[in-house]
């Protein structure tokens, strides 16, 4: 997809960070943008700023962890702009901590927002994109953390690994049609995801905010020194235009990803040498048919 003029673009988590960068970038390319965010007031402010700059945008409150809220967002989109062509499943939160310190409600919250939020977005908006027959694109925000999991960030990485896995499967199902799918995989970006607690819904209340640990403090500093969201947004749109499946933003992440793949390949080398498996003379294909 290369022409966004007049196209309906929906962005969750759109009131700040990468989402806001995407909203501004799509609007600058002539798209009609729905800025969706759990903070409806902030979404309205962001949309109003886009309109003042000459773009077309509306703000909408949306809790992506609630399927009904995402379905209401779809209705709002159709009522305002008639059609949706691009869905950016970007909303996300962060939880980190030592093994055994992540509370049940923390797990519920991060999985319902980061993982189920993407499921809700794809399953709600893809039928709308298919229905008008004009083609479109799905952009799912994952992370380099969807390929390499660091210690203490397991909850976040688990959701991002899952987004990568689901998106790879969905992309294979969509291949050859007029709807593309890309996975945005940034590293540190200057956002407020380290302040996710400010938008935690009451139903995920775990008895107060988690105490900030040393690891999270380091991550917060790295984030504030990260790429500007507008650069990440420009890279994301570039990737959509080129129909890239994986849209990476940090060339420096190559080394850690290669190191992980090298460990995996070394494990297969060990399998080749395995005495326990030596009696197998012929292996069936990995995927039948």
3D architecture notes:
- There is one protein chain.
- The protein is built from 8 helices and 7 strands; from the N terminus they run E-H-E-H-E-H-E-H-E-H-E-H-H-E-H.
- With 289 residues, the protein is an alpha/beta fold.
- Strands 3-2-1-4-5-6-7 form a 7-stranded parallel sheet, with helices on both faces.
- The chain is globular, with a radius of gyration of 20 Å.
- The mean pLDDT is 93.
Q: Which structural traits does this protein have?
A:
alpha/beta, seven-stranded parallel beta sheet, 8 helices
Provide a concise account of the structure shown.
The protein is an alpha/beta fold.
How would the blueprint of this fold be written?
Layout: E1 8-12, H1 17-28, E2 32-37, H2 40-52, E3 56-61, H3 67-81, E4 86-89, H4 104-132, E5 136-141, H5 154-174, E6 179-185, H6 214-224, H7 229-241, E7 246-248, H8 254-272
Helix pairs in contact: 1-7, 3-4, 4-5
Strand order of the largest sheet: 3-2-1-4-5-6-7
Compute the gyration radius: what is it? Answer: 20 Å
Q: Secondary-structure element sequence?
A: EHEHEHEHEHEHHEH
**Major sheet summary line:** 7 strands, parallel
Alpha-carbon distance between the termini? 32 Å
Number of strands: 7
State the helix count: 8
Q: Helix coverage percent of residues?
A: 40-55%
Low-pLDDT sequence parts:
none
- Overall mean pLDDT: 93
Specify the overall morphology.
globular
Our estimate of the beta-strand percent is 5-15%
Alpha-beta classification: alpha/beta
